[in-house]
Amino acid sequence: MVTIEEASSAGDKATPGIVAALWPIARFLGSLVLSFVLILAIWWLFLLAFPDVGPIIGRTPADVFAFLFTDDGAARARGTIFDDLWITLADAGIGFVTGMIAAIVAAALFVVSRSAAQTFMPIAMLLRSVPLVAMTPIITLVVGRGVAVVAVMGGIVVFFPALVMIMTGLAGAPKQIGDVITVYGGGRWTTLRRSAIPSAVPALFSAAKVSVPGALIGATVAEWLGTNKGLGATLQQALPAAAYNELWASVLVITVSSIVLYAIVGIIETVVLARMGMELT
């Protein structure tokens, strides 16, 4: 049975790791805020540099803010866009989970079996070279226009970059630890579980951070060309309907959502690595 003193001691040991992670988290969030401000500045400068784009087509960040929060119909417009956003986030989550699980399984298989890597890795890279838009009609014909097309298209966008990063992390495990496991009778899968996977945690989080915006892109493309729901469908319908306020607002909402999700994964990464005693980069 754990005593109060033991629990207090365990809490004291965990506290430095969390405290040590606060400054990296603040620095990380600060860089994201600065990046977002830079995006807004580039957006504004682009419209100034190309006046032919607006004011009929182009919308400034201030115009989008007014459309979503201060105009007469702002509540209705905001409700419509955020309803579509939840659909897109759900679709992105499906694609993210599908792609990450497939990447983890494939990376583990390729690291353990060199023959499997030599056989299937070129095929994976060949498929990666085919534009997603070109594959969409085929994917839609095969799996239909429901959740399956979202999972496949989102998974494709997430899978390939995550696979390369996770494989690199697994292959970079300390060889000395693997040798010790082998000496004590452990096989390749034991080495993978005991050595490679813990060492690959930073690579796994890096893959997740890269994959979060990719999952949103995959979900948007799937909605645009496959399901006709969510913000992807909104973008598709807004352009021919000349609904430019809605178009630019949807783009901004997708961008902000990508940054927020990226920040969430980054914060989790910082805390986990600090608790594991790994160096934060």
From TrEMBL:
Listed Gene3D superfamilies: MetI-like
Domain of life where this protein originates: Bacteria
Transmembrane segments: 28-50, 92-113, 125-143, 149-171, 203-227, 247-274
GO cellular component, one term: plasma membrane
Membrane topology of the entry: Multi-pass membrane protein
Keyword Hydrolase found: no
One of the protein's GO biological processes: transmembrane transport
Keywords: Cell membrane, Membrane, Transmembrane, Transmembrane helix, Transport
Pfam families per UniProt: BPD_transp_1
Cellular localization per UniProt: Cell membrane
Protein name (Swiss-Prot/TrEMBL): Putative ABC transporter permease protein
Organism listed in the record: Gordonia amarae NBRC 15530
